[in-house]
Amino acid sequence: MRAYGKFTAMAAVAVIASVSLLGCDNELGKKEYLVTANKPNNLHLIDTETHEVAKTFLIPGDGAPGTVSVSPDGQVAYVITNHMESLVGINLDSGEEVFRADASYDNIRSKHMFAMTVSRDGKEIYSFQTPVRILPGEYQVLDTQIAVYKTDAGLDAKPVRVFPAPRQISVLAPSVDGKTIYGLGPSIFGFNAKTGEIESSHPLREWGRPDYGVPDILAAWPTFEVSNILTAPYFVPRTDKAPDAPDAMKTGLVSLNLKTGEVTTEDFENTSVLIFSTVQSPINPNEAYGVYTQLTKIDQKAHVVSNRIDMDHTFYAINVSHDGKTLYMGGTMDDVVAYDAATLEPKWAVKLPGGGDQGLASLRVVRR
Q1: 17: part of which helix (H) or strand (E)?
Q2: Which sign, positive or negative, has the C-alpha torsion 150, 151, 157, 163?
């Protein structure tokens, strides 16, 4: 009996240890889902285990859904919609609209212009806006800004803080400690999350790299939630090369570490294909992936393309599972697909209800 009791105790300790490790890896047993949206106004929750659309909700308002950000607890999805003039929050259990912020008011027409994110503690939302005052004989362009809302503000949310921001910011992302909101635009700006003061700036358009021209950076998809690294592809001419030289144009990756604030820019090939969005592996810091008409695996240590396959149609958005084993792709049309991250072999695909394309809607990975 003592031996049995001792064995039982040891086994219990082992089970507890294994469960604890599993909990650390899976956030105490939470399941992984994808959140995306498609036209005209549908929001979808996709179960990555069953490979099915678990829930579909209607997004109140008009106009195609765009940027999606999900609360840290995976309970509420915030979506830019209504021709970019509204930001709505949908409870992912009930489908109830629990938040709404209309950017336009009085004679001010304002857009939630792509860049939007939820704070790390889930209490605030940051939205980059482009206001215009409509006068009888003219449109008066106002300064761009970042408006901050409380997530518990209900269906008539008003900004609790507004601070100026440079133009052309297309992605917002919070630092891991929540103290900084990064904005990716002509530079990568680090805004103090409370005051709005720009506390850091890493130039991109005017990066000053010898023998390089001005980079073209396509950044509209916030896919940083798994690795805590925000990445985007860039395309840049070499000024020391003949225009018809094979290496006259280079493709690279700009990466922002949301824990340390470090920014890197690294070429990985002579420009040969177009890449719309990229994502960093959460388990291999030297591996990233990009997608458009091809799916590309990037070896960031060797600065080369390590694998590339053709897709059957274009995909705008790419993301990755928390274990780093599966790539998810959406955007463009009405399907979401999963591919093996190691082999780039297809794993499964799902059609979204309604048949409408996802367009620029974000493809987010959540645990809930």
Answers
A1: helix 2-26
A2: positive
Do 140 and 86 contact (CB within 8 A), yes or no?
Answer: no
> H/E/C letters for each residue in 60-125?
CCCCCCCCEEECCCCCEEEEEECCCCEEEEEECCCCCEEEEEECCECCEECCEEEEEEECCCCCEE
- For residue 8, the model assigns a pLDDT of 39
Q: Which of 281, 275, 291 is nearest to 326 (CA)?
A: 281
Query: Which residues lie closer than 8 Å to 170 by C-beta, 6 or more apart?
Result: 113, 114, 115, 128, 184, 185, 219, 220
Rounded-to-integer distance, Cα 154 and Cα 325, Å: 38
Residue 269 has, within 13 A of its CA and on its CB side, a CA count of 16
Q: CA–CA separation, 291 vs 279, rounded Å?
A: 9
The one-letter amino acid code at 115 reads A
Whether the CB-CB separation of 157 and 101 falls below 8 Å is answered with: yes
Return the pLDDT at 203. 97
- Residue appearing with tokens 């294909």: 273
| DSSP per position, 241-308 | S-TTSTTSEEEEEEEEETTT--EEEEEEEES-S-EEEEEE-SS-TTEEEEEESEEEEEETTTTEEEEE
- Whether the per-residue pLDDT at 124 is higher than 80: the answer is yes
Q: CB 331: neighbour CB atoms within 10 A?
A: 26
Whether the per-residue pLDDT at 11 is higher than 80: the answer is: no
The DSSP symbol for 39 reads T
Q: What percent of the chain has pLDDT over 70?
A: 92
What is the pLDDT at residue 6? 38
Asked whether 294 and 346 are in contact (CB, 8 A), the reply is no
Task: State the average pLDDT over residues 57-82.
Answer: 95
Cα(1)–Cα(264) distance, integer angstroms: 61
31-367: CATH class? mainly beta
pTM, full prediction? 0.91
User: Is the separation of the CB atoms in 90 and 73 below 8 Å?
Assistant: no
